[in-house]
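Q: Could you predict the 3D structure of YqaI-like protein?
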Amino acid sequence: MLEHPEITRCNRTGYPNVISQPEFAGFDHFGDEIYPGDNVVEIDGDVILEDNLNRYLKECMEARFYTAS
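A: Sure. Here are the predicted structure tokens for YqaI-like protein:
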């Protein structure tokens, strides 16, 4: 019977070491994990991942983005 390669690997070598998982530095305003090396912004005590900055500005600061005419 054919077995999924991941099952075969786990049977052969055991499960991956959970301790070797990357450490995270905390959570941003939206609950996303922050890892060492991630770019973050702090606004009034809130820590926001750079990728979530537009969302933060729209949802929390009521910023409006538009194209100038």
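Q: Anything worth pointing out?
A: The first strand starts at residue 26 and ends at 27.
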